[in-house]
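Self-study notes.
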Amino acid sequence: MKNLLLVLMLLFGFTAFSQGLTLKKNTTEELKLEKGKIYQNDIQIPSYQVKKILASNLHSLNLYKQAKSKEALGGMLLGMGITASVVDLAIGLFSDVKYPTAITYAGLAVVAISIPILSGRAKKVEEALKTYNDGLKNTSSSTTNFDLNTVANQNGIGIQIKF
């Protein structure tokens, strides 16, 4: 009786802490870029969710991350350049310092550098979405993919099934 009770407790424990297998129908829809915003099923999706969606296609995810890096770098340079020029203008207006100084010229140069950096980001996002959408078309026409792997980590060993 003790052995039967032990086996039942172990089975109950395994089922309580196991992850249930849920099968989802493939509802991936194409991503669309309209006016700089990304839509899926005519609903705008935020950047963090776009990264999760693009994670299935590493090439498109890499292009999207490059576009976001260009956006961050270009925005930072644009902000620094404008700030430097405005600060130098304010100093020139409210004091007896000769305006424009080297700070204004450096600020305008940084703004000029940021423009080509920012202009390339939209092309990268378009390319990332195009690669992702092309990948969807290729996988939807093929048969169902099935991947079986063994997994080992600090929690133990197991079997991973991907559909």
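Second protein, same conventions, sequence then structure:
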Amino acid sequence: MLHDAMGDQELFLVGLTVSDSVLPKVTVVLDGPNGLGINECATISRRLARRIDEHYGEEAAYSLEVTSPGADQPLTDPRQYARHIGRSLALKLNDGTEKTGTLTAATPEGVEIEEVIKQKTKKTTLPAAFYSFGDIKEAKVVISFK
């Protein structure tokens, strides 16, 4: 658990990759209850670079990128869902079915969505249904430009 530049928000690791190349690229993907801004990314990048330099020496050759998940990236951590309550969510379930609807609740165990079914020119919203994280293969926020 990291704290942002102001120290008032807990951030969490969503992804970490290290490329296998001559000049390794370390990519750190962080998120938090309110997202992650450019200033927080810069502060954390400087802190991590200092730690890497302390551990491996200042002559270590690498590039470091600290970022937040893009809007088109799937939600991969249960803590990411709460800030998207009220937004449209697209779920792909392990059984192959797909559900799209408004995220109405997020718990440590799963999410609740009001699924929207489109039939020709009519849309029907079903009562909220619960889906456990174990049943969700992929979840993405549906970006709307209305």
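Instructor comment on the second fold: The chain has a mean pLDDT of 89.
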